[in-house]
Each structure stands twice: as structure tokens, then as C-alpha cells.
Fold this protein.
Amino acid sequence: MSLDLDYDTDVDPAAPPREARRGSSRTGLARVGMFALMGLIAIPFVFPVYWMFSTALKTYGGVFESPPVLFPAEPQWHNFLAPFSQGPFLQQFINSLYIATLTTAGVIAVASLAGYAFARIQFRGRNALFVMLLSALLVPPEVTIIPLFRLISAFGWVDSHLSLIVPSMFGVPAVLGIFLMRQFFISLPVELEQAGRVDGLGRFGIFWRIAMPLAKAPVAALAILTFLNSWNDFLEPLVFLRSREMLTIPIALQSFTDPITGVPIWNVQMAATTLSVLPVLAVFVIAQRQFVQGIAGTGIK
């Protein structure tokens, strides 16, 4: 008696099951669809930046072409040199850069110390004081600009960069930083502090040698937010600064106008604006991983 068995000799025993292949293909399609959706959502945010760069490369007449040209046939790269020849743009650029850097360093120092105190040091009225501190975030800067100007004038800081650096170190950016740092320090295990005390560290030693080295991610997030806020600040420089050489980038950008008609020279203005975006973009690209980790680690998800 013989049995005829039909074996499929083309099947590879090392090949994954059909269900696994289907699941993998579905995952791949889902990923492609997700990236396509993210690309569509990003268009309204990316296109204005692209249009700014494209306008910076056009002639003055090319800005008003109809229909609009997405990219000029003959890019005018010399437009990026025009802001430096039409005024003290380089000095104003340096002003914004060092003001934002000093402000960021000051806010990190103040916010880290205060945030650690609110998170780890027990004192009477701590919670009430923290709530009062957060209430400062609800007050628009336009409300406090007049009393702040009188205070700055009393110190003799009008038309001085101290009027921008010192108030920001203890203003709204610092309050936001205190909140971020407090949320992070609360999440640290108490056992780390206990181990530090066993090794003979005091309160400041625990803060400097244990807490701060672990706080690189929230510090990076705070640095980006503070630098961006200081770099884009418009109201305070407009009120406190007088001379053209002391101005910062946001005020300087509005000075690229025709001296007779007062109409903006759009291609030169967009070239200057493109140059002003580069420092903030560089800071964010360098620290973007720490920025995301810092925001997630402080409980703001």
C-alpha cells in the first residue's frame, strides 16, 4: 500500500509567517501615513519661513510679482550683506546675542536655586509663596511696563542693557524657570540626598554636586525658552533704549525702510530677518533632544 504525499518544496522554513509579514506591512503603511500627515501639518509652519528666505533673495520689484514666484530665477545673495551696510546691524546683532546669553545664564542660576528650594526645603508658607509666584505669569507685561520704567529710570539704567538683563533674570522667564526646575527636583529620589548627607555634603553641596548634574535636560529646555524670549523681546527694548547703537535685533528690523517714503525695503528686511533667525535655530538644533527630555521630565506632557 503506497501513500502519495504532496509536499510543498518551495516553502522556506526560515521565512516569517504570513501573519507576521502582514503585520509588518501594516506597520510600514501606518508609519508612512503618519509621516505624510505630519508633513501636511508642518506646511503652515514651515512655509512662512521658506517665504521669508525666498523674499530675501528677490529684487525689490520681484517681491511684488503676480503671480508670486516661489523661488527667484536669479537669487540676489548680496541682499544678505545689505543690512550691514545700511546701519549698525552687526552691533545690534551682537547686542541681542550677549544680552540673550547673559539673561539665559542669570535665569538658569536664579530658577535652579529657587526651584530646588521650593522642591526640597521645608519652610513656612512655601506653597502659598509658590502660588503667589506663579500668579506673576497671569499679569501681562504691558501692565507692569510703566512702574518698571520708573524703577529703571531711578537706577539710571535707561538706554543701558542692564535694563533688559536684570529685570528678565527676576521676571516672567525666571518664574517659568522656577516652575520647571521645581517639577524636576520633586521627581528626584530622596535617597540621593540621604546618600549625599552620609558623604558629608551640605545643602548647597547636594544641590551643586547631585541635583544639578542630573538636571541637564530641564536646564537645556529652560535655556532654549529663555534665549528665545530674550532674543525676540520687543516691548522692553522699545521703551528702555534710545540710541541706535544700543538697539537689539527686533527693533532694528523695522529700520530697513525707504528714507523718503518710509515704506519697508522688503527684500533687505527679510534678509535681515533670516539672519536673525539663525542663532535661535542653531541653539534649538543643538539642544533639541535635551529640550524634549526636559519638558517631559518636568511633568508638562
Summary: The first helix runs from residue 18 to 56. Residues 164 and 236 are 7 Å apart (CA to CA). The two ends are 72 Å apart (CA to CA). The mean pLDDT is 85.
